[in-house]
């Protein structure tokens, strides 16, 4: 089992996290933006974790986790356990700090790369240069990654339903809450406004998903119907949340 941690020397948040993670693991550094990295640029691994900055128009201080991909084209492989342990560990280390005012959350699937066929996720510090360079945040993220790797390598985590979430907005508040409450592990999160290709849906249902969770109030009937019918055709049931 090999974890690859990818850092960009062009990204201040990436360098910040890597500076603390280097104490525990070797970090693979690239001289390009992380969104431009392709599978061919990386050595083979069992899991890929990208260390990244996060931008938002609101400049809301944030610590986020998400699977990369373009829902209308292709998505990277995902692990519900990896994503959810990371989010919970980030949240727990954040709560132990003297920081406040941060949104610790999932993001829905978005942006490149799309071609990595082993479980892949981004962990991100947002949303301005102030946060990107804050060493306290770099340490929180690194500590959370170390804890997550230890849990996966040892198998020291609870069994929970592995779910795909559909509905809601970019920051997936309903699914973030359910994950932090310890009720589910989440892999792919799909917002209500997404145009999801059939090829992407086929890839998603063939992952480790056991249930489709639908943010009922945060989605439209047409989208819900499409998702329910597709997942049911693969014998995957749905649940309203």
From TrEMBL:
Q: Which reaction does it catalyse?
A: a D-aminoacyl-tRNA + H2O = a tRNA + a D-alpha-amino acid + H(+); glycyl-tRNA(Ala) + H2O = tRNA(Ala) + glycine + H(+)
Q: Name one GO biological process term.
A: D-amino acid catabolic process
Family annotation (Gene3D superfamilies) = AF0625-like
Cofactor or coenzyme needed: Zn(2+)
Q: Which Pfam families match?
A: tRNA_deacylase
Q: Which UniProt keywords apply?
A: Hydrolase, Metal-binding, Zinc
Give the first-level EC class, as a single word. hydrolase
- Name the Gene Ontology molecular function terms of this record: D-aminoacyl-tRNA deacylase activity; Gly-tRNA(Ala) deacylase activity; zinc ion binding
The record's comment on cofactor binding reads:
Binds 2 Zn(2+) ions per subunit.
Keyword match Zinc-finger = no
UniProt-listed Enzyme Commission number(s): 3.1.1.96
Entry's family note = Belongs to the DtdA deacylase family.
Self-association state and partner proteins as the record states: Monomer.
The record describes the protein's role as: D-aminoacyl-tRNA deacylase with broad substrate specificity. By recycling D-aminoacyl-tRNA to D-amino acids and free tRNA molecules, this enzyme counteracts the toxicity associated with the formation of D-aminoacyl-tRNA entities in vivo.
Q: What is the name listed in the Swiss-Prot or TrEMBL entry for this protein?
A: D-aminoacyl-tRNA deacylase
Organism, by scientific name, is Methanocaldococcus villosus KIN24-T80
